[in-house]
Amino acid sequence: MSEVARIGKTFFGYLKRPDLYPELGRKIIKNIFNRNSAFKGKEKTLAWASSKAVSQEEAILQLFGVEMQLFSTLFPQQLQWAKEKEAACPVKMGGAGALELIYYACEYTQAKTVVETGVAYGWSSFASLLSLKKRNGMLYSSDMPYLGQNGDQYVGYIVPEELKSGWKLFRFADKESLPKIFGEVQAIDVIHYDSDKAYEGMSWAYAQLYAKLRKGGVFISDDINDNSAFQDFCEKHNIEPTIVRFEDKYVGIFIK
Q1: Cβ 231 vs Cβ 45: under 8 Å
Q2: Whole-model pTM above 0.85?
Q3: pLDDT of 140-186, one tens digit each?
Q4: E strand or H helix at 47
Q5: What CATH number was assigned to the domain covering residues 40-255?
Q6: Is 206 within 8 Å of 176 (Cβ atoms)?
Q7: What local confidence, expressed as pLDDT, does residue 135 receive?
Q8: Contact between residue 190 and residue 216 where contact means Cβ atoms under 8 Å apart
Q9: Is the pLDDT assigned to residue 23 strictly greater than 70?
């Protein structure tokens, strides 16, 4: 599919969903007036992150005091099933991220309430739910449908049915989803941010989510090297985060 065709398909997908009109308006404004601001401070933060980065194993040991075991060791059958589901999915989305980091964050906090933004196939959801299931906890997820790919039905595709009773998926942009989620939760044990990667979107969501994170809770954000939103937020709040290098990107994490 050409870029023009994809944009057109996405636009008409929005038109069919009046509940998504607010996000459509924000995207139009951003692409016309604020396109370059999305990457504000990218070079600064890339240098900062690369100078501090540790491996996922090191981060889990430093933050949570445990030796990391790979998902392939912890959940071999579930992981194989999920990989087969991903391979069979007709829509291509983002792959698995730092599954162990998310899982051990939930184990460390003995999480009962987790909020994530960004789902795609559902790999981060999968990692959280495997921990939450032990405590009958609940995962609240915010994810925009994949309008340009007819992919709405495939969001969370690799999450097994037996885990879905502990999962609530809100199919809106963060600015609509998060207020709905906050209406159902008092305090959050673990946050995993992986949605809007523009500076303004990240900064807005970080502030909203951090206010709901309990003391001792864990905050994780993917793709912090896309701009300086994570670095700026941490400096503003005097937070010393741990930076994890995962493949070709950086993940930020801290305990409140």
Answers
A1: yes
A2: yes
A3: 999 986 666 666 788 999 999 999 999 999 998 899 999 999 999 99
A4: helix 42-52
A5: 3.40.50.150
A6: no
A7: 97
A8: no
A9: no
With a CB cutoff of 8 Å and minimum separation 6, the contacts of 225 are: 42, 45, 46, 49, 249, 250
User: pLDDT at position 54, please?
Assistant: 97
Whether the Cβ atoms of residue 172 and residue 23 lie closer than 8 Å to each other: yes
Position 246, amino acid: F
Q: What is the DSSP string of 96-113?
A: ---HHHHHHHHHHHT-SE
Element (H, E) at 9: helix 3-15
CB 99 within 8 A of CB 160: no
Residues with Cβ within 8 Å of 163's Cβ and at least 6 positions away in sequence, in order, are: 126, 129, 130, 133
Alpha helices in 92-198 (DSSP H): 99-109, 123-132, 174-182
Give the type of residue at 166.
G
Mean pLDDT on 228-248: 96
For residue 10, give the nearest of 19, 20, 142, 38 by alpha carbon: 20
What is the number of other CB atoms lying within 10 angstroms of the CB of residue 75? Answer: 18
Q: Rounded distance, CA 2 to CA 169, Å?
A: 30
If we measure between CA atoms, which residue out of 90, 128, 94, 88 comes closest to residue 109?
128
